[in-house]
Known about the structure:
With 896 residues, this protein is α+β, with helices and mostly antiparallel strands. Helices cover 66% and strands 11% of the residues.
Amino acid sequence: MRIKSLRVGGIGRFADGAHVEGFGPGVNVLAAGNEIGKSTLFRAIRTCLFHRHDSKHQEIRDLASDDSQLSASIELTFEHQDREYRIKKSFLRSPSAALFEDGREIARNKQADLAIWELLGVQPGSGRSVDEGAFGLLWVGQGASFSPPEPGAGATTLLNRAIESEVGTLVGGERARQVLSEIQAELGRSLTDTGRPKSDGPLHRAMREAEDWTSAEQQAQAKLTALEQQHGELLQRRQRRVELTDPVVTAQMTQELLTARTQLAEQRAAGREILRLEAEETAAVRSKEGAAQRLKQFRDLGTRLDANRRTETALMAELPGLRAREQEARTTLSRTYEQIEATEAQVRQLAARYQQLEKLAAAAARAERKDELARQLAALEQAARDLLAADAQLASLRIGSKDVDRLDEFDRQIGALDAQLRAAAAHLSIEVTSAGAGKVLVGDEPVDTQHRAPVLASTRVTIGDLAVITVTPAANPNHDARQSLIAQRETLLRSLGAASVAEARAQLSRRRDVEATRKGLVAQLKTLGVEREPAQAIAQLKSTLAQMDAAVAIALEEAGRTTPPSHAELEEEKLTITQQRALREGECAKLQAVRTQQQAALEGAVEQRSACESRLEQVRTGLAADLAMCADADRSARDALLLADLAACETAHQAASAALAVARETAPDAAALERMETRCQRLEQALDNRQQEHVQIERDIGRLTGQIQAAGGDGVGESLSVAQEQRKLAERELACIQERIAVLQLLRDTVSACLAEGRERYFEPVRRHLRPFLNDLFPGADLELGDGYAIESVKRGRAESFRRLSDGTQEQIAVLVRLAMGSILAERGQAVPIILDDALVYCDDDRIQRMFDALTRAGKQQQIIVLTCRLRAFAPLGGHALQLQAGSGGGSALAA
C-alpha cells in the first residue's frame, strides 16, 4: 500500500477544507508549525480507513470541526497491488462512503467499509480500535513513539508468518509453549504471579486447614492448662479463707480499735474546751476595741463641732463681697451684648444689600444668555420638524435589506434552475440554406441562416407553407420548482409595493438615503443636548426663557430699579459694601473677644459665690447633724460613761486570757491528736480490708468451682486428642500439595529454558533486519528481544536494560524496531506505509542525522511519512516535501 493524496473538510481546524498532494515512494516529510493540523491529518487517515462511515464514536466527534454545519469528509487515494484506490467517507452529518478502483466505483456505504477492510487484510472493526494488523504497529501517533512496539494479535500473526517463512517452524516450540501454558495454568490455581498462595486455591485451602487444626489443638491444650491452674488457685483460696476466719485474731484487732477510739474522744474533748476559751478571749478583745473606738468617735465629734462653728463665721463674712462682684460682671456683660447686636444688625443689612446686587448680576447674565437660548430653540424646532418628515418617509418605504436579499436569493435559485434545465434540455439546431431564407420561423422570429438554442418550453417551427413543427420538452420537476419560485418572488414584490426587483432596489436606496438623513438629524439633536423626544426639550427651553424673564423682573423689583445696572456699577457698589462689611465684622470680632473675657469673669464670680454658699450650707447641715447626736450640755457626762465602759472591757479581757493559758498547759498537743486519729484510721482500714478480702475469696471459690465443673463436662482431653490427629492429617495433605507445586515449578523452569534457546533462532530474522538500522545509530550494538517482541536490553559492549535508557534513546530504538518490522513485512509483499507523527523529539544533532540515514534506508523498500513541527531540524532528511494547502484542491475531492 502506498498513499498518494489526502483531502479533508469539516475536520478539526480544516472546516473549509484542506488537501495534501505529492506523496511519493520512500521518505515523505510534512513539516509545519504547531497547531497547523498535522496530527489531525494523521487521525483523519486512520478514521477514513478503519472506522465505519455511520459511526458516531467520541473519537470521530472530537475530530470534527467545532460548530461546523458540514459533514466531516475525508478522501484518501492510495496504490495497492498495482491498482489505484480512492476511498471517500463523510461522517456525522449525511454519512456516506464510496470506494473507487482505478476511477470506477466498486462499493458504497457499508459495502465500502467492508471492502476496504478486506482489501487491506484487517478484521472488520467496531470503530473502537484502529486495527489489529500492521497498521497499528507501524502508524505511530503523537507521543506514542517513546513506547516500544507492542504488536496486537493481528500484527503478531503477520510477523510470525513472515519469520516462519524464513526459519520454518521450530520443532517442539509450539508444543513447549502449550505445555508451559498448561503448567502456568495449573500453578495459577495455587499460586499468584508473585509466588504467594492464591486465595481459595488448593494450597491456600490446605494451609488454612492445617492452621485451623493447629489452632484448635493449641486452644484445647490451653484449656487443659487453664483447668490445672484453676485447681491450684482453688486450693490457695480455701487456705486463705481459713486464715481470715480465725476468731482470736479478729477479737484482738477489734479490742485495739475500741481502746484507740476512747483515747481519741478524750483528746478531742480537751481540744473543744480550748476552742471555747479562745472564742471567749476573742470576744473580750472585740469588746475592748469597740469601747475604745466609741470613746474616740465621741471626742472627734466634739472637735468637729468646734471647727464647723469657726468655718460658718468666716463664710458669712465673705459672702456679701462675692455677690457684689457677680452683679457688677453681669451689668458689664449686658452692655457688651447690646453693642454686638447693633454691629451684627449693620452686617446683616450690608449682606442683604450684597445679595440684591448678586441677584441683579445674575439677572443681567440671564438677559445676556436669552438671545443664545432663543437661537438654540429655533434650531431645535427646525430639526424636530425635519425628523418628523424623515420618519413619515420611512413609514411609507416598507422595504428592507433582508427583503432585497430574499429577492436576490429567488433570482439566484431561478438562475440555477435555468442552468439545470438548459443542461438537461434537448437542443434545437436549424441550418437554413439560401433557398429557404425568410421561410423558416421559430415562434414569431425568422431564422436567416442558423438557430441553436435549448428547448426549455414548447417551441413552434414554421417552414413556409410546407409544415409547422412543434417541439415539446420532456417533463421535468425543475419546471414546477421554477414556476413556484417565480410566483413567490411576485408575491413578495406585491407585498413590498414594487413592480420589479429594480424598483425594489430603488426603494431600498431611497430608504437608505432617508435613514442617513435621519441619523444626521439625530446627531444634530445630540449636539443640542437632546437624546430622546425633541418636543420635551423644546418645551423645557421655552420654560427656561420664561423663567429667565420672571427672575429678571423680580430682581429689579426687589432692588427698586427699572433697568439692570451695568457691570462696572455693580462691581463698584459691591466693593463699597464689602469694605463696610469687613469694617463692621472687625468691630464685631473685637466685641466678641471682650464678651468672651467678660463671660469668663462672670462665670468665675458665679462659681466663687456658689461655692461659698454651698460650703456654708454643708457646714450648717453638719452642725445640725452633730448636735442632734450630742448636745453641748451632755458632752461631759457621756465622756465619763464611755471611759468607765472601756475600763470594764479591759478587765474582762485579762480574765479570759488567764483561763485560756491554764487550759493550753494541760491539753495534749496537735501532733499527739493527729497520731491517735491516724492509728484509729489504720485499725479501721485493716478490719475493713480483712472483711472485703473474705468476701472476694468466697466469690473466687464459687467462680473457680463452677469453671472446673464446666470444663470437666466439656471433655477437654478428648478434644485435644481429636485436634492432634486432624492436624497431622492436614499437614500430610499440605506436604503433598507443596511437593506437586515444586515439581510443576521445576518443569516450568526446564521448559522455559528450552524455549529461551529456541527463541534465539526464532528472533534471528528480526535482529538481522534490525541490525543495519541499529548500526546506523549504534555501531556494533544488538538488541535482546523477549516474548511478544518486547525489547528487554541493548548490548553495547555490555548489556543495558531498555527501561534504564534515556527517553530519547528509548524513542530512537523503538522507531528502529518498527522500521525493521516494516522491512520484514515489505519483503513478504505486505508493505504498509510507516507514519511517524512528531517523533524523534529528543535527538541531538548527531543522533538525528543517523536516524535520517536509517529512515532513508527503510524508504528504499516502503513508503515512510514523517509529520513534524521541527522545520529546520528535519530539512536534511530530504525525501518528498509535502505541502498542506487550504481548500479542496479542485475537483470533487470533498464531495461525498
